[in-house]
Amino acid sequence: PPPNELKAKAPVQLKSTKDKEHPPPPPNNVTEPPSSDRKEGAVYQVGKLLGKGGFAICYDGKLAGTSKRYALKIVKCQMPTKMEQKFQTELQIHSKMRHQNIVQFHRAFTFESCTYLVLELCPNGSLMDMVKRRKGLTEPEVRFYGIQIAGAIKYMHAKGIIHRDLKMGNIFLDRYMNAKIGDFGLAALLLTGKDMQIMRRTTLCGTPNYIAPEILEKGKKGHDHMVDIWSLGIIIFAMLTSKPPFQSSTTDEIYRRARDRDYEWPNPETSQKYISHEAKDLVATMLQDADMRPEPDAIVQHPFFIAGHLPLAADMTTKLREAPPENS
Ligand code: ADP
Q1: Which residues, at least 6 apart from 270, have a Cβ–Cβ distance to it below 8 Å?
Q2: Which residues neighbour 22 within 8 Å (Cβ) at sequence distance 6 or greater?
Q3: 260 flagged as catalytic
Q4: Which atom of ligand 1 is nearest to the CA of 119?
Q5: What is the Cα 270 distance to its own chain's centre?
Q6: What is the pTM of this model?
Q7: What is the atom index within ligand 1 of the atom nearest the CA of 180?
Q8: What count of other Cβ atoms lies within 10 Å of the Cβ of residue 165?
Q9: 172 CB less than 6 Å from ligand 1?
Q10: Dihedral, 111, 114, 118, 124 alpha carbons, nearest 10
């Protein structure tokens, strides 16, 4: 694999749906031990269950003595070594992110041999649940979320982070129905700028026989970060139609269809949905080969975003929190 990345291998799938992998339910009050920035410690009052992930379990939590609410993500401490490493990377990356469309990381602490992450609360579920419930979004709504997610991707890439697992189920909705990227479980650090210079210097001392040319070319970026643009293309298709484009019963078939770009838009004759030419063109450009995919800035300049109506945030809040629109 190209050495300009730390990811090295294909991501390890460490998800488990077995209940025994999850931490036990927390007590009603969870105590954060004193730390250098909060000498008196803190108590979180645990509220309702928000959801279960691969190994984590997430509860609504209120900081005692305040009205502040958070998502408490609880992870069991005795994890397999691989899992522990993955979790450490996730923590390191997530804790450095600060963007209006990324779930804010507040703190992490250990209590009764479980790790607690204190995260920004997203009380309206995931984008996937909402899109399913509404059987697809309108084009103005897709513009609203498309711009938010493209902005978050631009921010991550500028910080040298590739997310690698962007999907509607990993994008949560805050109380105003804004999209927030959560779960950095498969994210990887891309070596850029200074690190690259150091690497170039050190590799050039040895033999360059084995070094891919894109690593040695100054100022030329690899295309690894473009995996996130592909995912955004899939997300935009899925927001418009309520199904991902390559959905199939086997993973092999999904891969085959993705490789062949074998997807179809709903038939306007038989389906209620009208999908504009601009929307279709946007998705097609994002599903090209990596070196042809647009960067986030170019995405939001596409006619789909420029020429159509963009709803106000306040209108989105009231409209999208409700159940399906009348015509479904
Ligand atoms: P895992 O990393 O194990 O996949 P997730 O990050 O997907 O865990 O979290 C598990 C579930 O917890 C999610 O599916 C979601 O329902 C809920 N959840 C996670 N983060 C938040 C958050 N910030 N606000 C509200 N709910 C959340």
Answers
A1: none
A2: 52, 55, 56, 57, 76
A3: no
A4: 23
A5: 33
A6: 0.84
A7: 23
A8: 17
A9: yes
A10: -130
Take residue 104 and report the two structure tokens written for it.
Answer: 């804010």
Instruction: Work out the end-to-end distance of the chain between its first and last CA atoms, rounded to an integer number of angstroms.
Output: 47
Atom number, ligand 1, closest to the C-alpha of residue 54: 3
Burial of 288 (0-12, 13-18, 19+ CB in 10 A): middle
Output the CA 163–ligand 1 centroid distance in Å: 16
Is 278 near ligand 1, meaning CB less than 6 Å away? no
ipTM of the complex: 0.96
- For every residue of 286-318, DSSP letters joined together read HTS-GGGSPPHHHHTTSHHHHSS----HHHHHH
pLDDT digits (tens, 9 = 90+) for 142-175: 999 999 999 999 999 999 899 989 999 999 999 9
Q: Is 61 in the pocket of ligand 1 (CB under 6 A)?
A: no
- Count CB neighbours of 233 within 10 A: 21
Name the residue at shortest CA distance from atom 6 of ligand 1. 183
Tokens representing residue 71 in the block = 């998502």
Check pocket membership of 182 for ligand 1, CB cut-off 6 A: yes
Copy the structure tokens of residue 283: 């998705």
